[in-house]
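Ticket opened by: R.M.
Priority: normal
Category: complex prediction / small molecule

The reporter submitted a protein together with zinc ion and asked that the result be attached to this ticket for the collaborator who will pick it up next week. Submitted input follows.
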Amino acid sequence: MTEALDERTRQRLGGGPSVVSGRITAALIALVVVGGDLPRTMTPDDVRDLVEAMTTAGAAMPWQALVVPTLRIVTTGPARSWGHVDEETRQAAREGYGRLLAKRVRAQRLAEAGPVALTPPERPRAVSGLVEAIDGGCGMCGVASVSWSAAEVEAAGGERSARMSAWELRTVEGSSIGRRWPKLLSIWLCSACADATGWTGSLGPSAVERAWSKATGEEVTLETPTPTTWAALVLRARRAEREEPEPNAASWQHYTRPEPVVEVGTGPVEAR
Ligand SMILES: [Zn+2]
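Result attached by the on-call engineer:
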């Protein structure tokens, strides 16, 4: 085992060291009886899975478990190791081991699966006439999808709920995304841009600058113009009745910071 069992895992395994140790021992006994094996390295989660799958059956297996409760006088032991374990207990251990293997296979499959591209979810309801919807990508950075690992998607309860967690729906004024617009806007924000709006959740030039700076690693200075949001480009296209821009494959792909204006020197010309 490569990692020490942390406090949380020990609590989940039943608390004190002797209880945890007893449960792990019982699980290992069940593993021996069904001829199972352990992975070469085990995380605390693997230990917990092993205990959950095998301990109940394993606790009933030691020979003393037959003797102690009834205090029967047993004169001879079984002819071979673990020969006294009845079929019902063995079957319970085999079923536990089957669950354990299935879990390992699933974990392996998830580890090998590529990342999942999560696009914004379907709108929970249609917007009212006072609000205009912008769909397809993040209203700020314009990214079309957010990448999660397959394991994260499964932990979130599947792709549908992962998409709900990865995206936030916000209703904002047009001016907050850099465009004067008579209606309120309903836009999606990717998790990175939603984080950049800070604890107030307000969207405005400083949130846009924070999101851009975090995504590109470029610093915001006094001379840095506020980046153009993707939603502003969409609105510009709508106003001009042009085709709307596609969302981006990567965040802020639609925006390049303009080169700073270099002032031409007006100092004295060097005399020859
Ligand atoms: Zn974004």
